[in-house]
Write a structure and sequence with these properties.
heterodimer, A: alpha+beta, OB fold (Dihydrolipoamide Acetyltransferase, E2P), 2 domains, five-stranded mixed barrel, 3 helices, about 30% strand, B: alpha+beta, five-stranded antiparallel sheet, four-stranded antiparallel sheet, 19 helices, about 60% helix, globular, cell inner membrane (chain B), CcmF_C (chain B)
């Protein structure tokens, strides 16, 4: 074989091996690190897995936000107006988190149906709704204020 | 009246761009010199009219002309003037106009500084850029006209700029980032022009190298500013989130880094030609993809202004045309430009090939992680999100593989090198690097294996660079003369590689040694963190130009000695009513102290407070700054200018300069 061609062949083989390693690594990394979004209705229906990281989002139920007096623990509920999921979280909530607004909580669902959140995301600005929440509300056929569409 | 002038100027710019896209290409095909010679003046014409349009929109913003829709939606009479100006690109329409203006600027720069290019090459390059300009100008005019009026129902005052964007860093972040994004269009245009002409040689690589370096430098600086802004403005002290929007700017940077190094091989050795062309296409396509991701509203972020599906579709079609067209051309033409030059396994070519492999794989995995949720969502397979653990799991090993090779790179020789020479050159740097890795982390909080590894690899890089510098000036009569004799492109490489080492150390140290406490604090409370005692002195009300704020004041002491006074704010902006966290930071080369306010908790004036101790976080941005400066320095190299003197013989003097990559 021509030496230049031989060299090319070896390079191509190296590239293939290296890329397959990378793909393997990517798939492995992806398996443990993706989390799926569930609207509250699906959580209530028992479709969401317990013990693996998921995201749940909806409108924060008015009057549901309860803070602890001596720590940063907070309890609230999110709803798509078909079902309500209670969430517990400890930490600082984002600036635009408020009752009656859309929010997404990422965490693990406990056996009692309470989401233990490690992260809470709210809207980015006044007019903006997290797309998952907008979608969940649309599926439930409700406006953000809860009226039937 | 002024907005109409702007609109008209934008239409004229489009007409000129269409001419630029058609006439010089036709001229290059029919060998019509007159048609080809039109290209530079047309390019300058597009710039003139884009700048007029830009100036008109800026005037509308500065004069509070709320009859213009984007001004009404994104500005406010209370906004400080500098933010009124930067509000221009704090929205979809205006940022697109900025994009077009910068593209026109790059075209005019190519027209001005590339007079020494053969007419036919220059005509093709400018025409390809003209085609891109046509795409973006018609996108702007057809789907997102920045000059649209709200008549007769003109609002009395504007909606205000998103408070997150009211920040000095955000004034220059978008222009810098766009300079980088759009700058890759030059490398792309050179690549397409070369494919059209069927001539890919060292001269072609030499022409496109300085442009690529400059674009890459701007992109580095833009990404750095974005990261810095996220750190102090988002109020939770992170510096990189692997957010799809960040990835959108990071992917062209990764591909661009591969392109820089591949261009070096093509220029110096005439190898990897087709691959370099492919990378140029790839880098610019990723810039376009980034624009699509960020601007089409498929992603959730402060950057996603547009939610109009027509816009997303337009960019998607444009992207498909550009990528499809250029890859089609590549498939037809690339086989004719293969090279038949060999190189040994132990050579700089192999090392740079490895660099390309690592950066390409990195780009593809980031691309995969970014697009995966979008694709799954588009096919209704569920709403996934891919988080930082995925990206870290891939990125950390890739960089750890890259750095040992990167340390050898500058010392290696083209074509044929020997293991014995590498051993002799690198034994000392290697041992010293291991010593650094063993000793330096002792000065941090506890010995940490990750930090030790990062320090070892970074020291390996820096000491390898120092060894190479030493070798190059060894034969000079004096050190000063030896240093002066080195070409600018070599200094650029030194700076950029040094910056990369600093970045790695900063990233690993801040990840491993950061301490974060979120807690409830009332005035009078104090908390100690990494030896620093934060005392909450009290709350105050502060009035800003367009906001009211609660200010939490802290005194920081260490072993009883005062270190800093910090005042974090929670602002409520008057026009929009939105609430913003303003972190207070005491910065230093070796540590940042960071305080941010959460929300009021319970009664008695207590607040949720976020306290951070961030060691060496500045190294990240300083490192990126070094990379950017390095990229810009290379342009000063004489060999990029020497062919302006037409009669000089090539070769000869080149060898005397040494061969920096």
């Amino acid at each position: 074989m021509h030496p230049v061609r031989k060299q090319r062949l070896i390079i191509v083989l190296c590239v293939v091996v290296f890329s397959s390693l990378a793909v393997g690594l990517a798939v492995y990394a992806l398996r443990g690190n993706i989390n799926l979004f569930y609207p509250p209705a699906e959580v209530a229906a028992g479709l969401a897995p317990q013990g693996t990281p998921i995201r749940v989002g909806g409108m924060v139920v008015a009057g549901s936000v309860e803070r602890s007096d001596d720590s940063l623990a907070v309890r609230f509920a999110v709803t798509d107006y078909q079902a309500t999921v209670p969430v517990v979280y400890e930490g600082i909530l984002p600036d635009l988190f408020d009752e009656g607004q859309g929010a997404v909580a990422a965490g693990v669902l406990g056996p009692d149906g309470v989401l233990i959140a490690s992260e809470v995301l709210a809207k980015h600005d006044e007019n903006y709704m997290p797309p998952e929440v907008a979608d969940a509300l649309e599926k439930a056929g409700r406006s953000p204020q809860g009226q039937l569409l | 009246m002024i907005p109409e002038i702007g609109h008209f100027a934008l239409i004229l710019a489009l007409c000129l761009a269409v001419t630029l896209a058609v006439v010089p290409l036709w001229g290059a095909w029919r060998r019509n010199l007159g048609a080809m010679a039109l290209a530079p003046s047309l390019a300058v014409g597009v710039l003139v009219f884009s700048v007029i349009a830009f100036a008109c929109l800026a005037t509308a913003f500065l004069q509070d002309d709320f009859s213009v829709r984007v001004v009404a939606a994104n500005s406010n009479s209370l906004l400080p003037p500098i933010y009124k100006f930067s509000a221009l690109w704090g929205n979809h329409e205006g940022s697109l106009l900025l994009w077009v203006t910068i593209l026109a600027g790059w075209m005019a720069a190519v027209a001005t500084f590339s007079q020494q290019l053969p007419t036919v090459v220059l005509a093709r390059v400018l025409a390809v850029m003209g085609i891109i300009a046509v795409g973006f100008l018609s996108f702007s005019l057809l789907t997102s006209n920045p000059f649209e009026r709200l008549l007769p129902s003109t609002p009395a005052d504007g909606n205000d700029l998103n408070p997150l964007l009211q920040d000095p860093g955000l004034i220059i972040h978008p222009p810098l980032l766009y300079m980088g994004y759009v700058g890759f269009s030059v490398a792309f245009a050179f690549a397409i022009a070369a494919l059209l002409g069927g001539r890919l040689d060292a001269a072609w690589a030499r022409w496109s190298r300085p442009w690529t370096n400059v674009a890459w430098a701007f992109l580095s600086a833009g990404i750095m500013l974005g990261s810095w802004w996220a750190y102090y403005e988002l109020g939770w002290g992170g510096w990189w989130f692997w957010d799809p929007v960040e990835n959108a700017s990071f992917m062209p940077w990764l591909a661009g880094t591969a392109l820089l190094h591949s261009l070096a091989v093509t220029e110096k050795r005439g190898l990897f030609k087709s691959w370099t062309v492919l990378l140029a296409i790839f880098a610019f396509s990723l810039s376009l993809l980034g624009t699509f991701l960020v601007r089409s509203g498929v992603l959730t972020s402060v950057h996603a202004f547009a939610t109009d599906p027509a816009r997303g579709l337009f960019i998607l079609v444009f992207l498909a045309l550009v990528v499809g067209g250029s890859l089609g051309l590549y498939a037809m033409r690339a086989p004719t430009v293969t090279s038949r030059i060999g190189f040994a396994w132990l050579s700089r070519e192999t090392l740079l090939l490895f660099n390309n492999l690592v950066f390409t794989v990195a780009t593809l995995t980031v691309l995969f992680g970014t697009l995966f949720p979008l694709v799954m969502d588009a096919f209704e397979l569920g709403k996934y999100s891919v988080g930082p653990p995925y990206f870290n799991a891939i990125f950390v090993p890739l960089m750890a593989l890259l750095m040992p090779v990167m340390g050898i790179g500058p010392l290696s020789r083209w074509k044929q090198d020997s293991a014995a020479r590498w051993r002799a050159e690198l034994l000392l740097p290697g041992l010293a690097a291991v010593a650094c890795g063993l000793l330096l982390p002792l000065f941090g909080q506890g010995y940490n294996l990750w930090v030790a590894l990062a320090v070892t690899l970074a020291a390996w890089l820096v000491l390898g660079l120092a060894r190479d510098l030493h070798n190059r000036i060894r034969s000079a009569p004096s050190i000063a003369r030896g240093l002066r004799r080195l070409p600018a492109s070599y200094w650029g490489m030194q700076l950029a590689h040094f910056g990369f080492a600093a970045c790695v150390v900063g990233a690993v140290a801040v990840t491993q040694y950061s301490i974060e406490h979120d807690l409830k604090m009332a005035p009078g409370d104090s908390e100690t963190l990494a030896g620093y005692r934060f005392e909450f002195l009290g709350l105050a009300r502060v009035e800003g130009p367009n906001y009211l704020a609660q200010e939490a004041r802290f005194a920081v002491t260490r072993n009883g000695r005062p270190v800093a006074r910090l005042a974090a704010q929670k602002r409520r902006y008057l026009a929009s009513g939105s609430v913003m966290t303003e972190a207070a930071i005491d910065d230093g080369l070796f540590r940042d102290l960071y305080v941010a306010m959460g929300e009021p908790v319970g009664s008695g004036g207590a607040w949720a407070i976020r306290l951070h101790y961030k060691p060496m976080v500045r190294w990240l941005w300083l490192g990126a700054l070094f990379m950017a400066i390095g990229g810009l320095t290379t342009v000063a190299d004489r060999r990029y200018r020497r062919h302006r003197a037409p009669a000089r013989a090539p070769g000869g003097r080149e060898a005397a300069h040494g061969t920096p990559a």
